């Protein structure tokens, strides 16, 4: 599905690209619009499930399934209370591939989300190594905060993209929990940060997507600031 019109909203819907995992890129939703909301929706594919290309996008209580770069693009998107599920057959699963090319206002923020393996492969979850993201473009911006990171999230946390420098990206974590949340052995990149509470506030609904301005009229519940 392709979303081009601003102020689009979806509730309790499933979006699936049923292409086989061997077919490569298989986008389930491409959102190239502003002020869009997805509430309790499911996004299912393998590679490149969700393509965020627009601005001021809000995903609340959604389930997102994939293998490689399955939340990607140059969009400005906030994910709150979402489940991010890595699937087989990919052994190295990269959640995000954000593609900011310059210092513009775009990026992905994940708040109070769960990053783990897809429930149907729980019995063989040890086969899946999860990385929070890799930089598709040099200014890639992704934040995970106040989220549960399962033990499949690898100690280094993040992965290189061949040929893309890591000096200007902004990858950050704040107050995450779970066995994969320990940042002691995270990548030693100039662009990776364990941020404090004050900076984390910049990536909330209120400040990151200006949500208190436009979300109330959607009647979708949201938390405007930090959870704690």
Tell me what the structure shows.
This protein is mainly β and 228 residues long. It has a single domain, classed as Pectate Lyase C-like (3 Solenoid). Helices cover 5% and strands 37% of the residues. The protein is built from three helices and 20 strands. The protein has helices spanning 197-200, 205-208, 211-214, and strands at 2-3, 9-11, 14-16, 29-31, 34-39, 42-44, 50-52, 55-60, 63-66, 68-73, 76-80, 83-86, 92-98, 107-111, 114-117, 129-133, 141-145, 148-149, 170-174, 192-194. It is globular, with a radius of gyration of 16 Å. It is an enzyme of class 3 (hydrolase).
- Enumerate how many helices there are, as a single number: 3
Q: What form results from the Cα inertia axes?
A: globular
| Helix-strand sequence | EEEEEEEEEEEEEEEEEEEEHHH
Please state the structural category: mainly beta
Helix content: under 10%
Number of strands: 20
Low-confidence stretches: none
CATH topology: Pectate Lyase C-like
CATH homologous group name: Single-stranded right-handed beta-helix, Pectin lyase-like
Name the beta content range: 35-45%
Give the spatial strand order of the biggest sheet.
2-5-8-11-14-17-19-20
Mean pLDDT: 97
Gap from first CA to last CA:
36 Å
| Rg estimate, integer Å | 16 Å
Name of the level-1 CATH class: Mainly Beta
Tally the structural domains.
1
Sheet with most strands:
8 strands, parallel
